[in-house]
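Design a sequence for this backbone.
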């Protein structure tokens, strides 16, 4: 479809930005224009960090130059603020007018003095803890948005709130989803032209995705763009949904369809285009949701719309007929690149499918695409058609299981990358995470909970020693410096474990990234040489920022190990991380603060009874565990420590007490939901029996015994 571009008179913004100085702007009386101009002028006001990616381009590049490759070894901790939890801290802080705003687990928002770390206010939206059952990837939140003296945050239970930035007082609170369905919000809002933009998550649980715009002052919904078509009998919301429906087959709407907009957005003020990434299908398995194939628009797509109305302009689909959880919700970056003799306005993305895309952001035309990690589902991207050339055996639905790279964690997940205006490189927190895709034997469209149409048992690590070691060795993480023009790696740093933090690049010639080994590290942006590090006491998955106050440059990052990989595999891929020490860490040259000494943990493992059922029943218990418990409590019941290790639970010895939690919901208030609609009492006991077997003969012991 050809793009329809409306170029509005937004040169006023550029004019206003050119008059900007410090933290004030000479824009006039229009407060909305003032806020938009400040964000648009991010490069001329490096002392603040006003939006999720710093500016609308989402480059995550700081023009500040006080901290450089020559003096970064002097970097020290200026102050630290305890967030009260360490479970999945993924937020990017904002810095506005001397204050820093950051979120913690369960959507608690903090406002701190950006120079001293002193708490100014905190706001707890009182999220329903039972919503943990509707999250694929931990009870996380990626931050807030700012606009005209207000702070905006989305909550896990699907609300969008506006707070007074000065006091933390709630101004309005709107529900953005049908709360009877398993929708969630984990992403950070953006604000464009006085409209707060927010999507949602839940594709693994059978929902239909969309992005909505709300009036920044009143909370009134302005527009909504659905990313997949609904039931044709109910009519389509727009002409573009009617067109998208032609790319689906069967009764896809019975399964939700998916396509949630759970993370990335960017905005071009000159073109007046809003861009957002669209997620995976629901279920993953295309042979179930769209049995005769089809592209299934707008799954795994970058979509451009008009921010005033939500009107469709263009799209580019990275993975037609998505069937691998290959979301295109990963970080979007806008830049102007010199390609050949032309300067091209591009949008760049490294989505889960393993290919790095450079796309014309005015038209949606593919410029180039090359794989940035090993892939075995497609040989290449055809630059004439823009489509991947798939390997037939990779389309696993209804066929044999297939060991594939990347797996559902992707070649790059949600962790933000960065584009340096100084080096012209994109810095990617890259992954290699193979996975075996296989059909689920008894898929049910009415099944509650995780409903991917894939047998999760094939994603569990094998107990055979040779296979276990091979799979462990195949899972990797790295910091990758990628040349988007040449489409090749400039340098890379191998990490000890996957699931490392987001990235910041600076005009001081530096790249900052936290990692799973609990280190916050500075690298030379041109060579990848490690120049400095700081032990954070817990793994860092969030992305850093930089700001300046009273002539001093600061680097800030939120620490707190968690997220999908940490919960599922963290116990089997141990890193130098510890739960219980989530903080906002802020550094400056010659900082002298220090972190408190970590207390030693002494936990006595209780006596666990041996299982009383046969091997066949234990195998059934493992399948039930994998479909209901693995995502939070870990593969083979081996916990990362962020949540209780079920192998150590005293409830294992007491069947009724176990059922009171699993079925009765006795710990809903602590975030452990009831599974009464998912499992019977008999099935609950099979899960208990399986966990008892893992407690008596842990995976690590079995593997060692085979050596």
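Sequence:
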């Amino acid at each position: 479809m050809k793009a329809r571009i409306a170029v509005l008179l937004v040169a006023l913004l550029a004019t206003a930005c050119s008059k900007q100085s410090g933290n004030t702007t000479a824009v006039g009386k229009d407060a909305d224009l003032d806020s938009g101009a400040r964000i648009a002028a991010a490069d001329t006001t490096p002392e603040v960090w006003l939006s999720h990616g710093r500016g609308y381009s989402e480059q995550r590049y700081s023009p500040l130059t006080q901290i450089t490759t020559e003096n970064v070894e002097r970097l020290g901790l200026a102050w630290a603020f305890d967030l009260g939890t360490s479970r999945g801290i993924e937020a990017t802080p904002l810095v506005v007018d001397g204050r820093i705003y950051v979120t913690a687990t369960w959507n608690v928002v903090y406002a701190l003095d950006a120079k001293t770390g002193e708490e100014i206010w905190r706001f707890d939206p009182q999220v329903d803890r039972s919503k943990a059952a509707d999250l694929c990837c931990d009870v996380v939140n990626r931050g807030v948005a700012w606009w005209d003296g207000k702070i905006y945050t989305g909550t896990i239970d699907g609300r969008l709130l506006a707070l007074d930035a000065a006091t933390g007082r709630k101004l309005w609170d709107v529900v953005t989803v049908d709360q009877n369905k398993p929708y969630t919000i984990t992403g950070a809002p953006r604000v464009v032209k006085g409209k707060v933009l927010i999507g949602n998550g839940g594709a693994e649980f059978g929902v239909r995705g969309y992005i909505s715009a709300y009036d920044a002052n009143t909370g009134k919904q302005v527009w909504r763009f659905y990313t997949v078509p609904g039931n044709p009998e109910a009519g389509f919301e727009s002409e573009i949904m009617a067109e998208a429906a032609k790319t689906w087959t069967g009764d896809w709407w019975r399964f939700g369809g998916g396509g949630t907009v759970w993370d990335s957005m960017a905005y071009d003020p000159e073109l007046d285009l809003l861009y957002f990434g669209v997620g995976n299908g629901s279920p993953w398995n295309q042979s179930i949701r769209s049995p005769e194939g089809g592209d299934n628009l707008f799954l795994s797509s970058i979509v451009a719309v008009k921010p005033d109305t939500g009107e469709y302009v263009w799209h580019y689909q990275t993975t037609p007929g998505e069937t691998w959880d290959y979301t295109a919700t990963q970080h979007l970056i806008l830049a102007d690149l010199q390609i050949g003799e032309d300067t091209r306005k591009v949008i760049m993305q490294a989505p889960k499918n393993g290919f790095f895309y450079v796309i014309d952001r005015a038209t949606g035309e593919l410029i180039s695409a090359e794989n940035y990690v090993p892939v075995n589902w497609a040989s290449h991207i055809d630059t004439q058609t823009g489509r991947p050339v798939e390997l037939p055996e990779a389309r696993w639905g209804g066929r044999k299981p297939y060991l594939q790279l990347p797996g559902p964690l992707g070649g790059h997940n949600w962790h933000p990358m960065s584009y340096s205006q100084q080096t012209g490189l994109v810095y990617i927190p890259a992954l290699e995470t193979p996975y075996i895709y296989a059909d689920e034997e008894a898929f049910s469209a009415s099944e509650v909970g995780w409903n991917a149409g894939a047998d999760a048992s094939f994603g569990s690590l094998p107990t055979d020693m040779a296979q276990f070691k091979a799979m462990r060795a195949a899972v990797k993480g790295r910091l990758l410096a990628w040349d988007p023009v040449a489409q090749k790696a400039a340098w890379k740093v191998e990490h000890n474990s996957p699931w490392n933090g987001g990235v910041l690049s600076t005009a001081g010639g530096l790249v900052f990234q936290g990692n799973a080994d609990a280190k916050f590290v500075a690298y030379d942006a041109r060579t990848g040489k490690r120049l400095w590090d700081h032990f954070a006491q817990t793994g860092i998955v969030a992305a850093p920022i930089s700001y300046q106050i009273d002539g001093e440059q600061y680097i800030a990052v939120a620490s707190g190990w968690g997220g999908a990989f940490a919960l599922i595999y963290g116990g089997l891929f141990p890193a130098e991380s510890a739960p219980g020490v989530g903080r906002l860490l802020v550094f400056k040259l010659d900082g002298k603060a220090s972190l408190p000494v970590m207390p030693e943990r002494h936990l006595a493992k209780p006596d666990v009874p041996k299982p009383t059922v046969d091997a066949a029943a234990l195998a059934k218990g493992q399948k039930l565990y994998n479909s209901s418990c693995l995502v939070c409590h870990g593969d083979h019941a081996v916990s990362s420590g962020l949540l209780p290790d079920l192998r150590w639970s005293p409830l294992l010895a007491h069947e009724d007490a176990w059922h009171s939690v699993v079925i009765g919901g006795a710990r809903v208030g602590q975030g452990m939901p009831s599974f009464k609609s998912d499992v019977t009492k008999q099935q609950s006991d099979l899960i208990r029996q399986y966990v008892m077997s893992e407690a008596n003969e842990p995976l690590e012991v079995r593997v060692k015994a085979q050596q």
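The two ends are 58 Å apart (CA to CA).
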